[in-house]
């Protein structure tokens, strides 16, 4: 069955079910000109938006429609996590090519709804249109937060410890397995799952912002090598990263040993980790780590902020040099 | 110059200028993980989102980049107008093909900024990514409104007068001129301008919602023939449209006389009028019309809501029949 068999409004009728997790304050949902929602008194609104295109950001023959929907929403949830907010309302725009079946389209929504339910997020509205060739997904996601709890990229201080909330490079390793070592993928189930279905660090982001212990935060989408530069630029500081401190999963280490890819690029140059990158003063680090550990989460020290504007890496031999790896900027030639 | 010559963050630096019209309450703008904004106390948030694709919704060789940006934002503003709200924050996602120059991209932003300035709207954030072939634009736009002033599609009552706030069919006629009669376009400057650069009826929408005189409202994007069906469905009513009452511009009438297109299709079957479609009780009509006239705006009576579920048209000879024309549903075969 194709989208054209049911029409835009027939499609809306089919996706309404299960789209609203929380009771909808605002009365208007999918199908009217606008969605209406209330914001809790005293809170500010966070909004993030991401556009994903087939063949640029994902390949339809490598991911199930469920995974495509899940991951698209996960990337947006990670942005809300990075500000320390509570995610609320998702607005999904889809441009659908002729060769995508209605069943696949509903599976994309199922992937989004599954993840939305976990984090108490409504799929509140959106826009569905046709595409001549590639599937395009744009999600706009709102969140709420107390304004004084928002963590910015610009708040880092010289001397701050640079922290991450998860193993680095699992997603990058998963992607390489999917693209280049499909016959051995099954030996690394965590890596491929972390690439296809990352769990956004909403709980960690909330705990960190509520603790008021951190100075700056963002999420790692382009790789630590690239993303730390945003914190440096916004905070007018430099950074030193310590390779020997980079946290890795057992599967990641096994993957590195077996396939011998360029280690540093895989660990910090590809991205899609969707964990948090934050800075915290030396004196607050232990308390913040305990706060997260008590909730069953992790905090790893991977470096420190310094005066200046350069980003250095200290390799496993203790040699310090300017970090050349810049991570993923899709507009630059690679 | 190409986007890749400056990179994503070089591009952000170039579009920041003039993007924020109002003072920005929330401190974070373009370039952080999320945008943060405050909502006036007691107000609710409206959010609308629209995705436009090259070759599906617009042709790059028929429109200037400025017009593409202008019109993309205009369509979203029209949705906020349709709810009676005040537009506030725009979030722009762009997927940019290799063959679009940086200059053209900045012109697209200029078109958006020009219109945004007219309606005191901030371009607050967004996402820029690459596309393999077609330009894709998604805008998510927020607005504010008192919840009790929101007008829905579902509020129409049997006996209500069906009204529109502008001439019908100008944009459709303009499109036909652009596509099929380019050498005579210059004789119909208003029609082509209304197609390329429609003025969203924000002021009219505000005045109508604040008057509390109307029962239901939406904007005309797919054509009156299609859009009145949404009000009928949501309000569980039927409608009668009167062809002889349809308001038309002098240029539209001249275009019809000269090119003899299918009249009804052009007037109510193509759309992109981006004016408002509303229903108001018989007793409130005159007062609402005066309210709009006093502001220099128009209100035209084009039919009435009836019990039942069918949509009828009364032609210029006074003959009543079921309206077959359904307007634009892009997913259905035409």
Structural topology:
Two copies of one chain form a homodimer.
Chain A (H helix, E strand, L loop, with lengths): L2 H14 L18 E3 L5 E11 L11 H19 L2 E12 L4 H17 L3 E10 L4 E11 L14 E4 L5 H11 L8 H8 L5 H10 L2 E6 L4 H12 L2 E5 L7 H10 L3 H6 L7 E5 L1 H13 L5 E7 L4 E4 L5 E3 L12
Parallel strand pairs in A: 3-4, 8-11
Antiparallel strand pairs in A: 2-5, 3-5, 6-9, 6-10, 7-9, 8-10, 11-12
Q: Which CATH top level class of the largest domain in chain A fits?
A: Alpha Beta
With helices defined by DSSP (H or I, 4 residues minimum), what is the helix count of chain A? 10
The 3D shape of chain A can be described as: globular
Q: Provide the domain count of chain A.
A: 2
Straight-line distance between termini of chain A? 41 Å
Mean of residue pLDDT of chain A?
Answer: 90
Largest interface: A-B, 73 and 73 residues
Strand percent estimate of chain A:
15-25%
- Quickly give the structural class of chain A: alpha+beta
- The CATH topology of the largest domain in chain A is Phosphoribosyl-aminoimidazole Synthetase, Chain A, domain 2
CATH architecture of the largest domain in chain A: Alpha-Beta Complex
User: Roughly how many Å is the radius of gyration of chain A?
Assistant: 20 Å
Order of helices and strands of chain A: HEEHEHEEEHHHEHEHHEHEEE
> Strands of the largest sheet of chain A, in order across it?
7-9-6-10-8-11-12
